[in-house]
TrEMBL record:
Residue spans of biased composition, Low complexity class: 27-39
Subcellular location as annotated: Plastid, Chloroplast
Organism per entry: Kingdonia uniflora
Principal location class: plastid
Classification via Gene3D superfamilies: Tetratricopeptide repeat domain (1.25.40.10)
Keyword Mitochondrion part of the UniProt annotation: no
Renumbered ranges of PPR repeats: 175-209, 278-313, 380-414, 482-516, 583-617, 618-652
Record carries keyword Flavoprotein: no
Record's protein name: Pentatricopeptide repeat-containing protein
Any GO MF annotation of the entry: mRNA binding
Amino acid sequence: MAIVSFNSPHNPTKSHYHQHPPPQPLSITTPNSNPTKTPSIRAHLSQLCQEGRPDIARSLFNTIPRPTTVLWNTIIIGFICNGMSHEALCFYARMINSLTPVNPDAYTYSSTLKGCANTQQLKVGKALHCRILRSHSTVSTIVGNSLLNMYSSCLNPLSRFDLVENVFDGLRKRNVVSWNTMVGWYVKRGLFVGALKQFKLMMEMGVRPTVVSFVNVFPAVVAMKDTNNCDVLYGLVVKMGSEYVENLFVVSSAIFMYAELGDIDSARVVFEVARERDIEVWNTMIGGYVQNDCYAEGLDIFLRVLELNDIVPDTVTFLAALTAVSRLQRLDFGQQVHSYLLKNSMIVPVIISNALIAMYSKCNLVDTSFKIFEKMEERDIVSWNTMVSAFVQNECDDEGLMLVYEMQNQGFRIDSVTATALLSAASNLRNYRIGKQTHGYLLRNWIQFEGIESYLIDMYAKSGLISIAKQLFEKNCVNTKDQVTWNAMIAGYAQNGETDQAFTVLRQMLEQNEKPNSVTLASILPACNLSGGVTVGKQIHGFALRHSIHGNVFVGSALIDMYSKCGAIVSGEMVFHMTPEKNSVTYTSIILGYGQHGLGGKALSLFQIMLESAVKPDAVTFVAILSACSYAGMIDQGLQIFELMESEYRIPPTPEHYCCIVDMLGRAGRVIEAYEFIKNLGNEGNVAGIWGSLLGACRIHGELELGKFVAKKLFTLNEGSGMAGYHVLLSNIYADKGMWKSVDGVRKGMRDEGLRKESGCSWIEIGGTVNRFTAKDKKHPQFDMIYAKLENLAMDMKIAGYRPIARCTADGTSELED
DNA sequence: ATGAATATTT
């Protein structure tokens, strides 16, 4: 089996030396042997360099009393070909300052200039340029080309002054290399039209293009998305003959060109035309498929590479394969790639480990990601960022924050990627302090990146500082509002329950001719639930249909949710069946809807259909189906599904699942069983919600003693927001039993602790207007008529023989039930 | 003995 090889940054395999025949045996020379000694010393030095030992060649060189220019050149070239450009430059400095004067020649200049290009030493390059101009009346084409190349790699491509062009204009003789370098330079400067013009000019001058000419001009048409000229250029390649069409450089860059332009079929044709393929051709083809979201096809090609005996997959191959695996969330495949790597290579490069971390994270196995991260001997900023993002994306925001802390301890600085993860964590945790700190850090360090405003708006809105979000939206994004920014603001208002504001922003968005997309609609739809009216939701649905975005999974799921929350479960059902693409959220929405409408049987049969489909249920799906079972009293089925969740689907239960089970048992009167269930959970069951469900059950079934015990337990847990509700529940239990003294006691306790239950509210939509009511409120413009009608109704009910049961609520108002 | 050139993770 082939051993996996990985590229090192300075891969010498492409140096010219390795294209030469294998080294000849040494010829030993003595200092005074004969006049031919110089060429043989030169051959010896050159051979040492070919063997990758230029330092030894230098030591040998140091023993030579009066080295000639040729010998100096040999060492300089030797260093350059071994990726030691810095040493080459030092050696050049030694040469011109030598006590035994030697004159640099064209070889010295071209190789030293290459050294400058490799190390970005503009000053040395300029000094060389001066020296060349001073010492020679004419500049040879090769030296001129070396100057062109040096300037094109050392100069800032965005600078207004174009020294490269000056040198090119000053060249007395140009050849195809000069033209190619110019085309490359234009591309680097972003002057794509210029690059293409230069290429055309070269053709018009009768210069025959080489493969490099094509490789250099392709990126220009890619950048311009110029599919026409792309075809013209490739046509030219075909015309030039098989030496061009089958050249590995041409094949690889043509595949890349077509793939970048979205024409993956043509890329495949180019790939098939190549009779011989090296690993880079294979990599480009895999990468092309990944780039075009054809992950399965990419993996097919990857598998073919593994089967080849003469091609060894490298870092890039595995990187592309892992990207495809991540996008497909094909964990099985990813694990195979992982074990292949472990089996076949000594060390896994950092970049591959990073991709593995990302892959496991995308497959929701963040623990495995962290194991890989922990085991890494070396980590770069991408490793840290990937792991932090992995935590944040898998709902482990606290771990993500801790890791950022640790990362800074180890000398890595927060960058734009870390910041996006931090902002996401802040908005997930609804923690504006972390968000503000991150915002401050970005401002202090002048860190800017694309979409920064949307991240900030999202964070401030979700963490409750909607006014700051609004300020950012209005001040910082005056002219730069894009779809994402608009969406962030709309979602922000919608999530804060500010429905009117959300719709105002949507209207502004439409007025400014910015098109809403699926994200916009999926963000605004939940606001329709809150507003209580189905009319607005229907309008959004109509909008989605008109703009052909109703087929989107997210929009579909949001529509289902909206209809079912507005009581229109039949419409929700229809949307479900008409949504072409269904994911776990789509299924969960409709199951939840069925459950809330008491349609347990329908929920259950749809859940069965889901299990048989390719869509995997997630933790939320189980909450939906369990609560549906609970509402419908389908206890046995519910318990069975709960078993299945852990054993079959490997989803660890959360407090929400436990709540469902307790609720399910409790509603059915199996209160003691529910209590036993919580006891068995141990410390994991010490969550207010779970005990709260049990307290609810105690009330329904009049379990006074257990209720008192459960309430006591709840009050020790003291989890804030819901506590008032639990006090009210306890007082209701007492009230049901007519124990008014105890009721008073609970209410006094609540007053002492400053607890107040938020009053319940109901609403109804009439003629497109939503009317909200809370107990005893007089805000409605027609409240007097409404109360008069209520009294009439109450009278009618009394006459009909109805006896309401009066129960006490915490704020002293009476509540009519049953 | 010298010059131009392709693929990559958050």
